[in-house]
Amino acid sequence: MNRYEDRSASEETEDLGFLSTQVYETLTSGKEEPKAPMSETQVLETMTRRGEEAKEAPKEAEETEEEEETSWTETAAGEVLLFFRDLGICMALVLIMINFVIRPIQVRGSSMYPTLQNGSLGVSNLLGYNLDGIKRFDIVIVYLEDKKEYLVKRVVGLPNETVAYIGGKLYVNGEMMEEDFLDQNYRDSYEGSFMEDVAPVTLGSDEYFCLGDNRPHSTDSRYYGPFAGDKILSKGVFIFYPFSAVGVETW
């Protein structure tokens, strides 16, 4: 009885080992032959490993497809689209800058000489004008609607003030004001009266009296009269050309 049971158990083990080898050969499709009969545990490990490799294969294929899908940016059409995207962003930034932050200007004429030279290139401050308003002696950009022209001048009189020039001196509400921004050497070199007398002018609630620094050669509020606040577009000037004149004026 004991011999029969021992032999039966041994045969069952050998049959299982033989079956496992067949399963392994089926899985490997004849690519690999086992060197020795495989146990049940080895078969299960092999099947598990094969299953994991089968799951990873689709993932690798998906990653390859994603790489192929994004590769359009490397094509000529992709480069063109990227160029126009970047160009659109740059144009939008420029429009925002010139409408809300700074305004490009070119000085024409000598009405602000020697503070500003004819032909100078720069920008004027829109943001500061909108946030802080206009102060006395600020340089401003004035728009003449009837002539479609822009003037660059300096504010000497503010709303509701009375402005006058007597003996070449500025008086505001009867009090003399020093104009230190005027170049004294240039004034001394000028033959004749640098600034003629101006009868007292009382400004309205939204009016500004503006003059050019080169008083003998400036067409300003002495000719046009006071400028309304809505005709002043920006204030301050930053000159970046010519390089010898680079600098900020009343920013």
Structural class by helix and strand composition:
alpha+beta
* Poorly predicted spans: 1-21, 30-34
Summarize the helix and strand pattern as letters. Answer: HHHEEHEEEEEHEEHEEE
How helix-rich are the residues, as a percent range? 40-55%
Distance between the termini: 113 Å
Task: Please provide a brief summary of the model.
This protein is an alpha+beta fold.
Question: What would your notes on this structure say?
Answer:
With 251 residues, the protein is of the alpha+beta class. It folds into two domains: 2-72, no CATH class; 102-249, Umud Fragment, subunit A (Ribbon), CATH 2.10.109. It has helices at 2-28, 40-70, 76-101, 126-132, 184-189, 221-224, and strands at 102-106, 121-125, 139-144, 149-157, 162-166, 169-172, 175-177, 198-202, 207-211, 227-228, 232-241, 247-249. Strands 1, 2, 3, 4, 9, 10, 11 and 12 form an eight-stranded antiparallel sheet that branches. Strands 7-6-5-8 form a four-stranded antiparallel sheet, with no helix packed on it. Helix 1 (2-28) packs parallel to helix 2 (40-70). The protein is elongated. The termini are far apart. The model is unreliable at 1-21 and 30-34 (pLDDT under 50).
